[in-house]
Amino acid sequence: MRFWFSPLPLHGALISELSAAGLEPWPNDQGSPHGDICLLLYDSPERHIAAATEAKVVFSSAALAEGYSKLLGCREASGQPLLAGWRLERVGCMGIQQWMTGNGTSGLVGDAEPINPLMASVILSLLETKPQLLESYNDLELQAELLGSEADLTYRQRLHQAIGQADPLQQLLATLHTLKGELQEARGETEHTRLELHKAEEKQKQTAIDNDRKQQLLDTRTDELKNLQMDIHALQQELQPKVNSLEQQLQNRNRELKDAREEVELTQLQLHQVQAELKHLLLVDGQKQHLLDTRTKELLSLEENIQALQQELQPKLDNLEQQLENRNRELKEARSNAELNLLQLHQVQEELERYFLQTRAGSQLVEAQTQQLSRAKLLMAKLSMNDFSPHCNMAAVAVEVLSGAEVARQQPSLQVQALLNTYAGSLERASKLLTRAMRH
Fold first, then answer.
1. Do 119 and 161 meet the contact criterion of CB atoms below 8 Å apart?
2. What is the rounded distance in angstroms from the CA atom of residue 396 to the CA atom of residue 383?
3. What is the distance between the alpha carbons of residues 146 and 42, in angstroms, rounded to a whole number?
4. Which of 56, 81, 173, 392 has the fewest CB atoms lying closer than 10 Å?
């Protein structure tokens, strides 16, 4: 530790002891002390007053209270050590050095020194007017390093005890000094009140002058406002027709906008309906496409069955080749017709794939295919059940095709009608050829 700090006047003897211990006063150009490198010093009120008288400096109760508050603030902000001056004088230079090195002090400090009765009366009257001064001193005592002594919390009782031990003349002098101090304080307050009153009168005069200026400025602004209102009224009269026209145009635009919105809403509703119908049509077309694919697969399967049947009949036809030499031409014709039927079946498949998007024609074509497929299956079943013997029932393999009444009742399209006629003719020729073959 190198520095000490105190905002209050200290005794010269205390400053000498601090210098002998190697401590220097805190530099004034660095403001309030900070960190833990500075010792904070305070003293009892009568010692500060005596130190101020010794140094012949002006000192007041307000300065004393401010100094105590500043020391308390430094202590709370930085936690720097706090000591009373009268305790340091008691321990001396060696005691200060021992305390700084952490070895404690060599002896007890003891109680505070007695107070002069006259000074006690002055301090007591001062505490009556400024009770916070005693509170600040007690706070300092509670936070200070006591160096083995007790905190001086009975300062007011020590003042009364000092006054009670004085002789009547000293008490009278103390009373006169107290009254003199009160009189000086009252005069000071009176002078302060007079100055405040003078300042108030000056301020009132200045306020009256400012009010006159403000009134003139207000009158000027009022005239300007009236002129501005007249200009605004004239401008309103001039712009009113335009405003009415714009309002009418705005109403027309709002009406048109409303109609447009209603039209857009109606269009959106129609669009939703069309989308729903389109989805339904796509679903129906998908179902029909699936049905058409199924029928196509069945026709292909039927073609494979016909080919298998041809392969099965081929050995028998080879065995009867010599007996049917005179029928070779008819057999070639039958084979040609069979190939034509296969070609026509492929054409039918292509026609189905081309017209599956046409709903009515597709539906009729599917119905016709279903009927012809069932008839073809029935014919194949009947053919497979006969053994082609000379005693077989030839009526069992009769060909069944759509009658004219059924065709007229179903009313198919021209394409379907032509397809049915060709298919029926092909089946009829194939039936005749097979009948002839079985008879021979």
1. no
2. 8
3. 12
4. 56
Residue type, 434: L
Q: What is the DSSP string of 377-439?
A: HHHHHHHHH----TTS-GGGG------HHHHHHH---HHHHHHHHHHHHHHHHHHHHHHHHHH
What φ, ψ does residue 84 adopt, rounded to 5°?
Answer: -90, 140
Alpha-carbon torsion, ordered 316, 319, 323, 326, to 10 deg = 70
The pLDDT tens digits for 383-417 are: 556 544 444 444 444 444 455 555 555 555 666 67
One-letter amino acid of 270: Q
Quick one: DSSP state of residue 296?
H
DSSP string over 1-36: --EEE-SS---HHHHHHHHHTT-EEPPGGG-S--TT
Encoding tokens for residue 403?
């009658």
Distance CA 189, CA 174 (A): 22
Q: Give the number of other CB atoms < 10 A from CB of residue 311.
A: 9
Mode of pairing for the β-strands spanning 24-25 and 38-42:
unpaired
pTM (2 decimals)? 0.41
CB 134 within 8 A of CB 127: yes
Q: Which of 24, 28, 48 is nearest to 37 (CA)?
A: 24
CA–CA separation, 258 vs 265, rounded Å? 11
